[in-house]
């Protein structure tokens, strides 16, 4: 399976997920207006955070070590038994905490303690979500991209049906409930598809504590949690700073352009995650590793440049379509943001070497350092250039990150 074919399947899966998300937003906007959309955003943020924490943040570790051990039956069996044990413990812990504070979470996030029962459903669902994460990570580790895309596309279709049905019955509450049950429903599609794969063994569903494998997976927990928790916290700090300095209307323009970038880059970042993480993890010699990195730049960089150029040329139409004519002032922010997107993908390709080779300490330190440098650059450049300075900060920070990753990869390759 090469990067082009992987890109095709991941594009289908990503498009299905985006379509499902659009259907949910449109339904909630129709049923509950702006207030409902606001509550949807808060609830989805909670779901995203818990989805990462449900299995203890070891999905990337499972992908790496499955790709590395797939020809070593004994090590693979030890890894998967330890991973399932780890995921079960993490999901029970997170589910228990969420269940205990369900009323407080509902009041804090949704402003209504009446949603506490929904939070309790989400808490109970953590076990199912952890199993889904485990299953998808194993499939990804075997680089079975076609099966992975099939599960995600069919799962998204079922989720759309569930959202439409429950929202007609329970309105906003039903739409939010469908988001939770839709995640667990993925098991109904994924398990039969996984069981029919040539590499499936019943032993993959056994649990056992293994000190060595648990320690290796725990390193990925640290990396995943640092990369999952830092960006939203830094973005909150950036929003607060921009709001104080320029007002919330200007923050809206910044947020709109950032969301457009997130949407079109999702296709590329998903392909990088699904293809390159297992590929780099299973490659241990210098020449094939260099070849994979060259292939990544050959295919992915032209793709991101082309997409960024299309978005820039059509920025006025994109802004009106996704938002409204009131967001016209955001069009001036696209240039530096899209340039930063290109640099971001260039740096991501190299940063996956740290993840694939389990450079835990270096990865975590770099996440903290570059999160702090981005925030500092936002403060300095917005003071000098205004709101567009936040976009300059984004681009400059990723240029620094790219230079850092070049040094890391050159040092790693030099040691092979």
From TrEMBL:
<dbReference type="InterPro" id="IPR002797">
    <property type="entry name" value="Polysacc_synth"/>
</dbReference>
<dbReference type="InterPro" id="IPR050833">
    <property type="entry name" value="Poly_Biosynth_Transport"/>
</dbReference>
<dbReference type="InterPro" id="IPR044550">
    <property type="entry name" value="WzxE"/>
</dbReference>
<feature type="transmembrane region" description="Helical">
    <location>
        <begin position="299"/>
        <end position="318"/>
    </location>
</feature>
<feature type="transmembrane region" description="Helical">
    <location>
        <begin position="256"/>
        <end position="278"/>
    </location>
</feature>
<feature type="transmembrane region" description="Helical">
    <location>
        <begin position="44"/>
        <end position="67"/>
    </location>
</feature>
<feature type="transmembrane region" description="Helical">
    <location>
        <begin position="387"/>
        <end position="409"/>
    </location>
</feature>
<feature type="transmembrane region" description="Helical">
    <location>
        <begin position="148"/>
        <end position="166"/>
    </location>
</feature>
<dbReference type="Pfam" id="PF01943">
    <property type="entry name" value="Polysacc_synt"/>
</dbReference>
<feature type="transmembrane region" description="Helical">
    <location>
        <begin position="362"/>
        <end position="381"/>
    </location>
</feature>
<feature type="transmembrane region" description="Helical">
    <location>
        <begin position="215"/>
        <end position="236"/>
    </location>
</feature>
<feature type="transmembrane region" description="Helical">
    <location>
        <begin position="114"/>
        <end position="136"/>
    </location>
</feature>
<keyword id="KW-1133">Transmembrane helix</keyword>
<feature type="transmembrane region" description="Helical">
    <location>
        <begin position="12"/>
        <end position="32"/>
    </location>
</feature>
<feature type="transmembrane region" description="Helical">
    <location>
        <begin position="172"/>
        <end position="194"/>
    </location>
</feature>
<protein>
    <submittedName>
        <fullName>O-antigen translocase</fullName>
    </submittedName>
</protein>
<feature type="transmembrane region" description="Helical">
    <location>
        <begin position="338"/>
        <end position="355"/>
    </location>
</feature>
<keyword id="KW-0812">Transmembrane</keyword>
<keyword id="KW-0472">Membrane</keyword>
<feature type="transmembrane region" description="Helical">
    <location>
        <begin position="79"/>
        <end position="102"/>
    </location>
</feature>
<keyword id="KW-1003">Cell membrane</keyword>
């Amino acid at each position: 399976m090469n990067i082009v074919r992987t890109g095709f399947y991941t594009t289908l899966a990503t498009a299905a997920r985006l379509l499902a998300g659009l259907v949910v937003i449109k339904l909630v906007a129709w049923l509950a207006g702006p207030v409902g959309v606001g509550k949807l955003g808060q609830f989805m943020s909670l779901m995203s955070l818990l989805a990462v924490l449900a299995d203890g943040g070891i999905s990337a570790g499972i992908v790496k070590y499955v790709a590395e051990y797939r020809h070593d039956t004994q090590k693979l069996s030890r890894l998967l038994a330890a991973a399932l044990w780890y995921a079960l413990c993490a999901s029970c812990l997170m589910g228990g905490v969420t269940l205990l504070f369900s009323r407080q979470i509902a009041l804090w996030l949704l402003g209504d303690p009446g949603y506490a029962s929904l939070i309790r459903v989400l808490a109970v669902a953590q076990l199912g979500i952890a199993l889904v994460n485990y299953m998808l990570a194993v499939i990804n580790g075997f680089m079975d991209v076609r099966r992975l895309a099939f599960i995600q596309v069919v799962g998204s279709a079922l989720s759309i049906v569930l959202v439409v049905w429950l929202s007609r019955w329970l309105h906003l509450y039903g739409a939010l409930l469908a988001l939770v049950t839709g995640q667990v429903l993925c098991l109904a599609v994924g398990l039969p598809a996984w069981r029919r794969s040539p590499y499936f063994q019943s032993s993959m569903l056994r649990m056992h504590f293994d000190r060595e494998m648990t320690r290796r997976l725990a390193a990925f927990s640290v990396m995943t949690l640092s990369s999952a928790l830092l960006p939203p916290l830094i973005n909150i700090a950036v929003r607060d700073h921009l709001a104080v300095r320029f007002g919330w209307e200007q923050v809206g323009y910044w947020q709109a352009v950032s969301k457009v970038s997130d949407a079109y880059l999702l296709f590329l970042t998903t392909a990088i995650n699904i293809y390159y993480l297992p590929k780099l993890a299973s490659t241990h010699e210098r020449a094939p590793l260099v070849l994979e990195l060259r292939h990544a730049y050959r295919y992915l960089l032209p793709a991101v440049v082309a997409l960024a150029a299309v978005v820039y040329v059509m920025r006025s139409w994109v802004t009106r379509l996704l938002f409204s004519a009131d967001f016209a002032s955001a069009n001036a922010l696209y240039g530096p943001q899209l340039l930063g997107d290109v640099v971001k993908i260039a740096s991501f390709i190299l940063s996956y070497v740290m993840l694939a080779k389990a450079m835990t300490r270096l990865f975590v330190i770099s996440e903290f350092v570059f999160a702090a440098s981005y925030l500092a650059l936002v403060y300095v450049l917005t003071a000098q250039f205004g709101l567009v300075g936040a976009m300059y900060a984004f681009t400059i920070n990723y240029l620094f990150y790219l230079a850092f990753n070049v040094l890391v990869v050159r040092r790693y390759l030099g040691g092979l």
